[in-house]
Amino acid sequence: MEIPNPNIHMWQGNVACAEGAIAAGCRFFAGYPITPSTEIAEVLSQKLPAIGGNFIQMEDEIAAIGAVIGASLGGVKALTATSGPGFSLKQENIGFAVMAEVPCVIVNVQRGGPSTGLPTHSAQGDVMQARWGTHGDHPIIVLSPSSVRETYDMTIRAFNLAEKYRIPVVLLSDETVAHLTEKITIPDPASIEIIDRKKPYVSPEKYLPYQIDETDIPAMANFGEGFRYHVTGLAHDETGFPTNNPEKIKAQLERLNRKIQRNRNDIVEVETFETEDMEVLVIAFGATARSARRAVINARESGVKAGLLRMKTIWPFPDEEIEKIYKSVKKIVVPEMNLGQIAHEVEWATRREKPVVRVNKINGEPITPNEIYESIISQG
Amino acid sequence: MSFRYEVRLSGAGGQGLILVGKVLAEAAAIYDGLNATQSQSYGPEARGGASRSEVIISDGDIDYPKAENIDILLALTQEACDKYIDGLKDDGILLVDSQMVTNIPKGQYKVVALPIIQSAVERLGKFLVSNIIALGIITKLSGVVSESAVKHAIRARVPKGTEEININAFYTGIDLATHWLDEHGPL
After folding, report:
1. By the CB < 8 Å criterion, does B29 face chain A?
2. Which of A159, A195, B146, B171 has its CA 20 to 30 A from that of A130?
3. Do the Cβ atoms of A179 and B40 come within 8 Å?
4. Claim to verify: residue A154 and residue A291 sit in the same structural domain
5. Which domain holds residue A348?
6. How high is the mean pLDDT of chain A?
7. ipTM of model
C-alpha cells in the first residue's frame, strides 16, 4: 500500500466542477437543485460560506440565474448549475447576460429529455439548446468535458473565458461524466491561470460601459465602486441606455458577435488521437468521446486506420479544426447521445463531401465502444 | 498490456452498494496506486428498485467507464440478479446472498452463494453492514485490491463512530470467503 498523496482524490465530476469553480475564484452560487447536477450545489453550499463566498438556493431556476447576473455585475465571479428542464427556464436570462455582456458560468448536466425526461440517466440532447436556446442572433461559448479532471480544468476555463470576453459560458456536461467517480490529481494552485475582467481606467464621469474600441470588449466597472451606469436587455448604445438609432444598434450588435468570432482560435479547443494516417474519422465529445477512443484503439487492432477528433469546445463549432483533417478520410463517424445534432454540423462543415455515419442513442444508456467500433469497421 | 477488472454491485436501492463501490474504487486508486472509476445507475425513487454500482480497476487508462465484461457480479436481491446478470464473463464470479437469491440464472460462471445478510444480523447485530461484508468477500475473492487498502478506505469513508463495526463486517466477509475457498478450492 502506498502512502496517499494529499492532492489525489476520488471525485465525482460534479465535485470536480464545484472545486474547479472555487479554484477559478467563484465566490457566488445561486441555483435550484436538480438531478443530475445537485452535487455541485451541495458541495458549494458547504464550501463557499467557509471561504467568504455566498450560496443561495433560489425559488426557481429563473431567479437563480438572475441572482448570478446581479452578483457578477457586483464584481463577483458567479455560477449556477442545472439540468435540461432548468436550462430551459434559464434561457431568457442567458440572453440578457449575452446582451448586457455579463460574465457568468452556467453548468448544464445533461439528462434524458424532452421535458422532465430521464432525471437519473445520461444524454447529450442539449447541444442545439445550448447554442440557440435563447432568441436572437447571439454568440455563446459552450465547453464539454469528458473526464473528472477535465471537468475541473474546464470549469476554470469557463470562468476565464467568461471574464475575458464578457459572455455567459455554458459548461455542457452529461450525467455519465458528472456522476462518474474517478481519480484526479489536482494541480498546484500557483500553476492555474486565472483571468479577471478588464476594469475601466477612466474616471466614473467619463466611463462608457459599452464603448467600442479596438478590442471589441468594453471595460467592465463593478457596481459599488463608484461607477453608475444603465444595464438593459434592450438594444443600447455605448452609454448603456436604450436606443432606436439604427447605426448605433448595428454597431453594438456587430461588435457583440464579432468579439467572439475574431477570437474563435483562442476559444475553440479540440484533441486529436491517431488522426495522422486515418481512413475513418470519429468526431465525439463528452462521455461519448471516451467510448470513441476505445473504439478507435480496437479498430486499429483490427487493421482499420481510425482516428478521433474530440471536441472540447462545442460552440463556436470547431469547423476549421475538422477542415484541416477530414479531406483524406473515407467516412466520418459521429456518435452522440441524441439524434444527430453534431452530425448535422459535421455535414455542414465538410460540405457533405464524405459519408457521415450517425451512431445515436436516446434511451438513457451511454454509447458503448462496440457500437462505435461496428460503425467504424463496416463497409457501408 | 494493462489489466482491466470489472465489478458490478447490485441489489435494492438503499442497501449501500454505491458506498461499497466508492470504497473499493478509493482503495484501488488512492491506497493501492491503481486507476479506478466508480459509477452507478438508479431510478428516480430514493429507496427500493433495482440499483447497481460499477467499479472498473486498471493499471492503465480507463476510457469507457461502464462494465461490459464483468469479472465479479454481486447480487443481493433476486430482482437485481435477474436484471444485471448480462455482461458477466463466462468465467466470471457470481456472488449472491444465499437467502435472497435462490434462483441462480443458468451460465458457465462460478457461483459463490453466501449468507451475507444473515451474517450481518447474526454476527454483528446490524443488517446495515451487509454491504461491507460483501466488500470483504469481494476483496478476498477478486484479489484485485489489498486488504489493507480496503481497510484504510473504509475508515476514511464510513461515518465517524461506525469504523469498528464496519471493519468487523469487512473481516467477517474475508472470513466467509476464506472458508468458502477452503471448502470449494480456488476460483
Report:
1. yes
2. A195
3. yes
4. no
5. 272-377
6. 97
7. 0.93
Nearest CA to CA, how far is B122 from chain A (Å)? 32
C-alpha cell at A136: 436572437
- Shortest alpha-carbon distance between residue A93 and chain B (Å): 29
Boundary of a domain, candidates A191, A220, A236:
A191
Per the CB < 8 Å rule, is A2 touching B33? Answer: yes
B4-184 CATH fold = Pyruvate-ferredoxin Oxidoreductase; domain 3 (3.40.920)
Of A1, A9, A293, Cβ closest to residue B149: A1
C-alpha atoms less than 13 angstroms from C-alpha of A41 in its C-beta half-sphere = 22
Looking at residues A349-366, what average pLDDT do you find? 97
Indicate whether A342 pLDDT > 70. yes
How many CB atoms sit inside 10 A of residue A32's CB?
Answer: 22
| Amino acid, res. B8 | R
Chain A residues within 8 A of B42 when measuring between CB atoms: 120
Q: Is the pLDDT of residue A3 over 70?
A: no
Cβ separation of B63 and A368 shorter than 8 Å? Answer: no
Judging contacts by C-beta atoms under 8 Å, the chain B residues touching residue A1 are 31-32, 146, 148-149, 152
- Residues of chain B short of pLDDT 50, as ranges, are none
Residue closest to A159 by CA, chosen among A288, A251, A56, A25: A25
* CB–CB contact B37 A294 (8 Å): no
What is the average pLDDT across A202-221?
97
| Interface touch B30/A182, C-beta < 8 Å | no
Confidence at A379, pLDDT banded by 50, 70, 90 = confident
Query: Residue A272's pLDDT band (boundaries 50, 70, 90)?
Result: very high
Nearest to B37 by CA among A371, A158, A111, A366: A366
- For residue A225, tell me if it sits in a domain: no
For residue A160, being part of any structural domain is answered with yes
Contact residues, chain A, for B44 at CB < 8 Å: 35, 119-120
CB pairs under 8 A between A and B: 70
* Cell numbers representing residue B157 in the block: 469513508
The Cα of A220 is separated from the nearest Cα of chain B by a number of Å equal to 42
Residue A304 lies in a domain: yes
Question: Does A380 have pLDDT greater than 70?
Answer: no
**In angstroms, what CA-CA distances link A287 with A119, A149, A278, B93?**
17, 13, 22, 28
Between the alpha carbon of residue B75 and those of residues A229, B39, B121, B138, the distances in Å are: 63, 16, 18, 12
User: Per the structure block, which three cell numbers stand in for A23?
Assistant: 479554484
CATH number of the domain residue A337 falls in: 3.40.50.920
Task: Please say whether the beta carbons of A128 and A100 come within 8 A.
Answer: no
- Classify residue A102: in a domain, yes or no: yes
**A9-43 pLDDT, tens per residue?**
999 999 999 999 999 999 999 999 999 999 999 99
